[in-house]
Design a protein that fits this description.
The protein has a three-stranded antiparallel sheet. The protein has helices at about 5-10, 20-45, 50-55, 65-70, 75-100, 110-135, 140-170, 180-215, 220-245, and strands at about 1-5, 15-20, 250-255. The longest helix is centred in the C-terminal third of the chain and has 34 residues, at about 180-215. The chain is globular and about 60 Å long. Helices cover about 70% and strands about 5% of the residues. The chain is mainly alpha-helical and about 260 residues long. It is built from nine helices and three strands; from the N terminus they run βαβααααααααβ.
Amino acid sequence: MMENSTTSNQRHSKPGVVVVSLTAATVITSSIMAVGFGLAILLAVLFNFKATTATHCKVVNYLPSISAAIAKPPSSYVWRFVITITAVQRFAAVRFHYLQYSKVASKRSMYPVLCRLCFLCELIEILALVGLTCISSNENTSMHENLFVTFQVCSMVFMLLMCIVYSWASGRLPGSSSKTLWERRSLQLKVLTFLINLSCFLIAVYFYFRHNAYCEPGVYSLFAFFEYLVVLSNIGFHATVTFDFGDKLIMFGAAVEHEKQ
């Protein structure tokens, strides 16, 4: 359950209710994902370096791709655990984002359509992330690749659409009467994060095909490095979307009123 901080202050002191700010929840979830991702890569390098950096070219590489890293224990255990404990918040955020932005009264006829497309792309993105986490490249290579492509395409489309939706909704969001300095900076940060994500993805694709075409030493590692940046910028972008509603509180449990006998 989510409420404004001003409307839930009376409930803080009541038993059975745990209140967490949406900002804190976002920081915790994003940190878990970023740290878990880094740990999964590190464990792959430490325990499965040869297996996770090997390719059909049989040339020297220094970093594992994400798919190779999360396909082998202990990295696979870490990444699956991370996705398991953060998936609920990510799914809840999808609905929350849609509810907040769909309330905006915009004069643009395409605004409601873009809101629905944002919802759909964000939902498919997270479903694909869960899917590629559950099905490793070792278990079903083609399905894992298809899920990864779906994840990345929906992720970039969501980022682009969200930048447009946010620019149209700024100053009209619940609790806001005019475009604030925060909203202007938030939009700039969203656009910057999206451009970083898109640029890193295109660079990663370039190194991937260059590796397959020429089998040069270290090129696959460059692909892997920019692939890491794609994931980290994705985590960062989702954090900026939820940060815009930092005044909201998440309430767990229910206050129970006891009648006097």
